[in-house]
Write a structure and sequence with these properties.
globular; three-stranded antiparallel beta sheet; seven-stranded mixed beta sheet; 12 strands; Aspartate Aminotransferase, domain 2; alpha/beta; 371 residues; Aspartate Aminotransferase, domain 1; binds 4'-deoxy-4'-aminopyridoxal-5'-phosphate
């Protein structure tokens, strides 16, 4: 089996499973309970928070554990805008994940005014274009660290130089990037950041939102005082401890060897192939490639039949018939979008996976598309 869809979700590190099992058995007490085993659970929660905060140079009390990236992004957008008194305008990027774009659309129905920042043909946002879009009533800028379909990295330092100077909170979706490249929220001047464990060897259904101490945020849910009241509900300690373990185990930066080899093989064998975002810096584990005249919808089942698993786009949009909004924003036609594959690598891959995949694609094309 060759699994090349880590950007959709990663297999779980075996050590993470062991930790989750042990914590479920031995730390079942509620961290809010005021007896010894409750205190032990609280202490473990504190340790996990510390590891995760340190991983991107924040403070422990700036971490809000969530159920994953979708919740983190919704909490950031709704949380900042609903807490904003006078300012009603916000900016999000055109290639953001659906959990940002759909939340942004929902906010327009609450009376907020939305501007969408376009990207260049290599998928990058321009800090100058952002500066021109900012208004006196801009309350939030929300731009991803890296794109989950192409791996393209955004110029966050240039963007945050503007947002910090204008005192506009900057939220970054780091779900694709966290655990794969080093992140320093202080150096990058990021005010809010979303991450999710299941993209980096951790369990599904857990993530965090980093919220810089000075930022005001309204909660989405109401209840107890967990997570400083910003995310009430009994903490999912086994998942959080699994997340901590995944953070400890992740190689940051991740290796690009398998991705690079696959890219080299595919571009060599298919001279017309185009690597989307090739002109930009990219995450080390994602390859987004258009192979002319090879529809992904036909190729992927053939690869799957050989035990090779890749995707055409973001997993949560894979049922959609419409072209990828990311590739459309980068200027690709609907046909080019339909001829695009996303490969994403991770800790379980070996170099020969690239060769096996390239050979399988050659075989499929020879037998299916060229006869
Ligand atoms: N943002 C990005 C960039 C993602 O790739 C994803 C997952 N596809 C999410 C947010 C949502 O994360 P989750 O699946 O943890 O809700």
């Amino acid at each position: 089996m060759v699994y090349l869809d880590y950007a959709a979700t990663s297999p779980v590190f075996p050590d993470v499973l062991d930790v989750m099992d042990a914590v479920s058995r031995d730390f079942y007490a509620n961290p809010s309970s005021i007896y010894s085993i409750g205190y032990s659970a609280k202490k473990l929660l504190h340790e996990c928070r510390k590891t995760i905060a340190t991983s991107m140079h924040s403070e422990s009390d700036e971490i809000v554990f969530t159920s994953g990236g979708t919740e983190g992004n919704n909490l950031a957008l709704f949380g900042v805008l609903r807490a904003s008194r006078q300012k009603k305008h916000f900016i999000v990027g055109s290639t953001e994940h659906h959990s940002v774009l759909a939340a942004a659309q929902a906010l327009t129905r609450e009376g907020f005014s939305l501007s969408i920042l376009p990207c260049s043909s290599d998928g990058r946002y321009s800090a100058e274009a952002l500066a021109r879009m900012i208004r006196p009533d801009t309350a939030l800028v929300c731009l991803q660290i890296a794109n989950n379909e192409t791996g393209v990295l955004q110029p966050i330092d240039e963007i945050s130089a503007i947002t910090r100077e204008k005192r506009i909170p900057l939220h970054c979706d780091a779900v694709a990037a966290y655990g794969h490249i080093p992140l320093d929220v202080r150096a990058l001047k990021i005010d809010l950041l979303t991450a999710s464990a299941h993209k980096m060897g951790g369990p599904k259904g857990v993530g965090f939102l980093y919220v810089r101490n000075e930022i005001s945020l309204s909660p989405l849910f109401f209840g107890g005082s967990q997570e400083r009241g910003l995310r009430p509900g009994t903490e999912n300690l086994p998942a959080i401890a699994g997340f901590q373990k995944a953070v400890e185990l992740s190689a940051v930066p991740a290796s690009s060897l398998v991705r690079d080899r696959l890219e080299q093989l595919l571009t060599h064998h298919h001279p017309g192939a185009i690597v989307n975002g090739a002109g930009a810096s990219r995450l080390p584990h994602i390859l987004n490639i258009t192979i002319p005249d090879v529809p992904a919808e036909q190729l992927l089942p053939l690869l799957s039949a050989k035990g090779i698993y890749a995707s055409a786009r973001a997993a949560c949009a894979s049922g959609e018939r419409i072209p990828s909004h990311v590739l459309t924003a980068m200027g690709l036609s609907a046909t080019e979008s339909a001829e695009t594959l996303r490969f994403s690598t991770g800790f379980g891959n070996k170099l020969s996976d690239a060769d096996e995949t390239s050979n399988a694609i050659d075989f499929a094309i020879l037998n299916r598309f060229c006869t």
